[in-house]
Amino acid sequence: MRKIGLGILISGRGSNMDALIRACEQPDFPAFVSVVISNRPDAPGLKKAEGRGIATSVVDHEKYPDRADFEKNLQKILDAHPVDLICLAGFMRILGAAFIRPWEGRIINIHPSLLPDYKGLQTHERVIADEKKESGCTVHHVIPAMDEGSVIVQKKVPVLAGDTPAMLAARVLEKEHEAYPEAVRILAGKLKGRQKVGIA
Length: 200
Ligand code: GRF
Fold this sequence. Notes:
Rossmann fold, seven-stranded mixed sheet, alpha/beta, globular, binds 5-O-phosphono-beta-D-ribofuranosylamine, 34% helix
C-alpha cells in the first residue's frame, strides 16, 4: 500500500496530533507522519511527538519580521520532508493565501464546532450561551478564509444540561480524535500520484 506523508502543524497540547500518530502506527492506515512542526518552542505536543520517534521542528513566528518570512521558513521545513498532506491540529496562526494556494486540496484543519456554525475561537462557550442541543467537530479543507473550505468529516455530540465549556470541549475532543484519522483516510485515496508543490 502506498502511504501518504503527513506534515502536522501544532501550537500546543497536540492531542489531535497524537491521535493521528497513533492511527499512522496501524499497519493498514494509508499515511505516515513525516514531520511535526510547531510555531511555539514550548508546545507540549513536541515532546509527545519526539517520544514516539517522529521528526519535529520549530518555526517560531516571533523570530520572523512578518508573516511572509515565517511562512517561507515553514515551507522550507515542509520541503525537507515527504509531505503530501498538511494537517493543522490546534495550529494557532492564520496562514496567508501565498502559503495556502499551492497546497489547496492538500491542507486540512480540525475545528471544534459544526461548521459553518461557530467559526473562530470560544466555540463551546458560544454554543452553550446559545442553548444549542448539539455541537461537534469538523475536519475541512483549508482555503484563504478562516474556517471556510469544504467539509471532509463532521461528527456530532449532544450538548447536555449543566454542561460547562470544559465538559463540552472534552466530549467534542473525543470525536475529534476519531474524525481526524477518518478524514486523512478519505483524502489518502484521492491524493495518490499528486506532485509536491511549494511557494517560491
Ligand atoms: C482542538 O479542539 C482543535 O479542534 C482546535 O484546537 C484544539 C487543539 O487541541 N483547532 P489539541 O492541541 O489537538 O489537543
